Each structure stands twice: as C-alpha cells, then as structure tokens.
Amino acid sequence: LTELFSKLVEKIRGVEYIDEQTLQEISRELQRSLLKADVPLDMVRAFTDTAVRRIREERPPPGIPVKDFVIYVIYQELVKLLGGEAEPDLKLPKRPYVIMLLGVEGSGKTTTAAKIALFYIKRGLKVGVVETDTIRPAAYDQLKQLAERVGARFYGERDGNDAVGIARRGLEQMKGVDLVLVDTAGRHKNEQSLLEEVKAIYDAIKPDEVMLVVDATVGRQAAAQAEAFMKYVPIHSVAITKMDSTARGGGALAAVAKTGARVKFIGVGEGVDEIEPFSPRKFVARVLGMGDLETLVERVKAVFEEEEVLEELESGRLDLLTFKKQIDALLKLGPLSKVLELLPGTLASKISDEQIELSQKNLRRWRAILSSMTEEELRDPSILNASRIRRIAIGAGVTPKDVKDMLKVYESMKKMSKVLRRQYRLGARGVRLQ
Ligand code: GDP
Ligand code: MG
User: The pTM is what?
Assistant: First the structure.
C-alpha cells in the first residue's frame, strides 16, 4: 500500500498542473491501487467519485498549491475509508478489564494476546492471559511460553476439555491483575461448534470487550469473518494481524471499517512487540509518505495556542519574553523529545544537527534563568553583557555558562520557530502539506 500510494503522491507532485485529463489519470491510478489492496469494489467507486468531485468543486485554501490540495483530499478520504478521525481508545475503564479474543485458526489470536499483554505491561499494568483452546494441544504451551517471555500471569489447563470452565477458573486466578486477555480456540469440529463455544465462553465470563482477530492477508474477506462472529457475540474491537506480510491490509482495514467495527490494533510482525494501536490518520499519513505531521501539528498548536505568542511569531519577532512563554507552554506539553520524535525526518535531523538538548530539566533551568532577567533584558537580549549575565546566573542558581548556553538555544529556537510557524499556519488552515 505504502509503495503504491507514495508513487501516486510523487506523480501528483511531478505533474505541471492538474487538468481534467490528469484528474482522470489520478482517479484511475487511485482505483488501481485500492483494488490491488483488495478494497471492495463499491468502496473503491464511492471513494474515487467523492475524491474527484471534491477536487473539482473545492478550492484550495489561499497559498496552498493545487497539487498539495489534491493530495490532502486523497488523504482525508483515505482516512474516512479506514474508519475516520477518531483515535483508538486504549484506556481501560475498569480493573480488572477483561478482553476476550476470537477469530479463525491461524489469524494470530494467541500471538496478539501476548502482544497486547506486553503493550500494557510496558505501560505499568499487571496483565494476565488465559488459554481456553482445548482443541490444539500445543496452544497451552504456546501461550504459556509467550506469557513467561512478556511477564504476564498465565492460566490454562494442559489436558483440559472444558473451555468454559477454564475461562471461569482462569478469571478467578487473576485477582489483582489490571487486564486479563482470554484466548480462545480458532478451530473446532465445524464452524457451528466453534461459534457456539465462543458464545458459551462469552455468556459465562461476560468480558468487557470482545476483540476479533483477523489476518490481513484475507483482505476484503475480513468483513465476512466479522459478520459471522457478530451473529453470535458482539464485536467491540478488531485487531488486524500480519499487516507486514501482505499488500491486502488496506482492504482488510476498509472492509472492517464498513461493518462499523473499530480496528484497535494492527500486528506488524511476528515479534511480541510488533503491534501498534491503529490510528487511520497516522496510518494514512505514513502510507502517503507524509511523516507524522498530523500529530505534530496538534502538538505544535498546543504550544502556540497562546494568542500573544502566536502574534509575536507571526510578526517574526521572537524576543526572550516570547521564548519564556513558549517554555512555559512546553513545560505543560510534556517531554519535548516526544514532540521532536514526531517531526518529519528532515526537520528532526536539522534540529539534532544544531545539537539542541531540550530536556525537561533544561527547560526548568531556563525558566529559572529567564525569571531572573529584567523586563528590559527580556525584551532586548542584545544588552546582555558579562556583568548582567553574572547577575542573572547568581539569581537563578546556575553558572554564567548555563546562561550563555540558553541564549544559544534561544537563537536556534528563533530559527526553528520560523519552521514551526509555517507548519502551524498550514495546520490552522486544515492543510499541512508541503
Ligand atoms: P491463532 O491460531 O489465531 O492463535 O494464531 P497464532 O497466534 O498462533 O499465529 C499464527 C501465526 O501467525 C504464527 O506463526 C504467528 O507468528 C503469526 N503471526 C501472528 N501475528 C503476526 C503478525 O502481525 N505478523 C506476522 N508476520 N506474523 C504474525
Ligand atoms: Mg491460538
């Protein structure tokens, strides 16, 4: 998918202008890409119709090149196709929270149980897993080993044959655990008896969430799988596995989105840490090769939310007073390294070139330094001479070198803020492509 679309994006950027003929070509190319990803035909049609109509009818915001606008429309429509703007909800509303995983054999349930366990263990929670698959003898050992590897509590019965009883007893063993993942069998004498067992377990333990696990390689067939299970139990969320090993992942995502179920996680490899919360916006941004701009823009907006700061940035004048406000905003924002991680590669590397070490600790030190400056100094940093710097250093409890270092960073920030300002203004208009 990524390959198909990044080619398309390149192509759009490469054309001289967008006329009717180019638009038709883009539309055909889009259709081809989506069909290759196994997106259902009716969805492909609806998608290209809407995209083409919007490109014809809507005008790009002032200052935004038509080409970028075309890509932006495609971006927005792809996000809709894959489930919309909402971000996955990863909070666990109660303790213990019980998730039951179901899906056909080989879809990746057991692996996904271990992956989700690790995902939450890394976030400081106590997690337990329960194996109720009594059909495949190896299932017990598989999940037991994975549980040991990720540090989750395990319950199973090696030669058991009562899946419902195992589920019940398993939950009883999980006192004090924050999250319990109940793994189920994916194969049975026949489909009917599988679905009935799933329903019996569901009725017995009443899990807080039922998560369907689907293998991405089935493409659009994902919808049929979801619908078959939905006849027996409610499906609250979906995990799509093996996104790394097929071009049909987009089709699976779109087909699931159409059933109304929410894709919460995607599996991107065999390793226990190869899982990602699924955000259509970030996914599409990546598919189109746009980096994680979407998230960046939100964070940057938060930094610049204060009107005054924005105004001064607009006027291109970043004095230390503004710098101080920015630092206050940044301290509210959380670790800046996280923000920097979100920058597209080129910009991030520019910043690291300048060797800016923007840790929370630095930010606090700088705030202290800025607090011991006079209003006059904040407005006009050029008056800072050696004796003023010494006085400021003493006032802030730091060395004169610390003050000078901060001034250097301020100069870099001044440069960087120009870039961020550009990003912000594009973001504010709803278009952040360049
Ligand atoms: P289950 O029968 O539904 O429990 O499926 P398993 O968890 O046993 O997984 C079946 C196979 O798919 C195993 O070989 C897994 O390593 C593999 N698998 C699961 N998730 C992923 C994934 O995201 N990417 C890849 N490449 N393989 C996966
Ligand atoms: Mg299994």
Answer: 0.70
